[in-house]
Write a sequence for this structure.
């Protein structure tokens, strides 16, 4: 299966709890609760923007050359 290669915590001091769902189970929940789908999509878009911001900041600070094919 696929696994994330990077993990980001929301805070250093507090505990972060996560859980995993199989794709089939997630799709079932999304189809059962359409409002949940919109919530997950909104969060996913915000996470993507934040991860890209962090990556660009790291590249700038580390002076890493930019790969134009990634954008």
């Amino acid at each position: 299966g696929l696994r994330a290669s990077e993990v980001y915590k929301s805070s250093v001091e507090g505990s972060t709890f996560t859980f995993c769902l199989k794709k089939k189970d997630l799709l079932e929940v999304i189809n059962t609760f359409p409002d949940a789908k919109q919530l997950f999509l909104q969060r996913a878009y915000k996470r993507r923007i934040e991860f890209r911001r962090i990556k660009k900041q790291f590249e700038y600070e580390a002076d890493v050359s930019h790969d134009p094919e990634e954008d």
